[in-house]
Design goal:
With 280 residues, the chain is an alpha+beta fold. The protein has ten helices and eleven strands. It has helices at residues 13-20, 26-38, 59-76, 137-146, 160-164, 172-182, 196-202, 222-230, 235-241, 257-265; strands at residues 2-9, 44-54, 79-87, 97-107, 123-128, 154-155, 158-159, 186-191, 209-213, 246-252, 272-279. The strands form three sheets. It has a five-stranded antiparallel β-sheet with strand order 8-10-5-11-9, sandwiched between helices. Strands 1-4-2-3 form a four-stranded mixed β-sheet, covered by helices on one side. Helix 2 (26-38) runs parallel beside helix 3 (59-76), helix 6 packs across helix 10 and helix 7 (196-202) packs across helix 9 (235-241). It is globular and about 55 Å long.
Length: 280
């Protein structure tokens, strides 16, 4: 067995939570950003710890944040074994906070995923994103501020603020179930975070190959289209900043496509072939 570890935060998405005074989902984002980075090598996350820095401790707010972290850990099948809360008066305003976390997992060496497994002709199987997730919020906030958008404005049957605060999807158990079902026909995963779809996928592809996406095969989510239109965001910037509707990509042997899609459909996830691995 090999040990694996990952650490991350939520970035400036916490500002949206602060402005809405809604703190019960941002912890889910934290767990997702940590454990979904960990599972891409095939490791099962075993336990997680968190760190919360605040300007002033408001017990109810801390409880809400930690409740979200606990919900995220439950969805990921990961134990939350402890954490730290630190008060930073003078550095942070009373209503400001930031969160981070770390997780440890394990994978048997023969099950380790990565570029050593990936070959020409492999399929890029896309798992849908739940929203913007927890990346690219510096651009989101720039558009909100420069275009004077209101978080309370109606959008898609909700409000813009609530849509932006939609928690990051946690794919950990989906990935582990897929690993068990496909065995050697699963070659790798790519968690689509900062840098966008192409850049994150390229990290796991061998140097002599390339991940070729067919962008006509899916729709960019409405909230991203709206923000890009309002903010006059060039297409290239949109594609390298947000996930564009895909939160996780499985790189699989083409012979395993049917069983892969059936396995994830049984868990309530609809997937699609978004591209393939080609020679450069």
């Amino acid at each position: 067995p090999l040990l694996a570890t990952s650490t991350d935060g939520v970035g400036t998405k916490v500002v949206i939570a602060q402005r809405l005074d809604k703190h019960d989902t941002i912890g889910i984002d934290l767990v997702a950003m940590v454990v979904d980075d960990l599972v891409v090598c095939g490791a099962e996350p075993l336990f997680m710890t968190d760190y919360i820095a605040v300007g002033k401790v408001f017990p109810e707010r801390i409880a809400e944040i930690v409740s979200g972290i606990a919900k995220g850990c439950e969805k990921a099948g990961t134990a939350l074994i402890g954490g730290e809360t630190a008060e930073h008066p003078g550095l942070l305003d009373e209503d400001e906070f930031d969160i981070a976390g770390a997780a440890t997992g394990a994978v048997d060496e023969e099950n380790l995923l990565g570029e050593h497994r990936i070959k020409e002709g492999d399929i890029l199987l896309a798992m849908p994103a739940s929203g913007i997730h927890a990346n690219g919020f510096s651009l989101v906030r720039h558009i909100l501020e420069t275009k004077k958008l209101k978080l309370a404005e109606a959008f898609e049957g909700s409000t813009l603020g609530e849509v932006l605060l939609t928690p990051t999807e946690i794919y950990t158990l989906d990935c582990l179930v897929l690993q068990k079902a496909l065995k050697e026909n699963l070659h790798g995963f790519s968690h689509i975070t900062g840098g966008g779809l192409q850049a994150n996928t390229d990290r796991v592809i061998p140097k002599n190959l390339e991940a070729k996406y067919d962008w006509s095969l899916w729709e960019i989510p409405a909230v991203m289209k709206y923000l890009a239109e309002v903010g006059s965001v060039p297409k290239a910037d949109l594609e390298r900043t947000w996930n564009c509707g895909i939160g996780m990509v499985a790189v699989i042997d083409k012979s395993a496509l049917e069983i892969a899609q059936k396995t994830l459909a049984a868990r309530g996830m609809n997937t699609w072939v978004a591209g393939e691995v080609n020679k450069k």
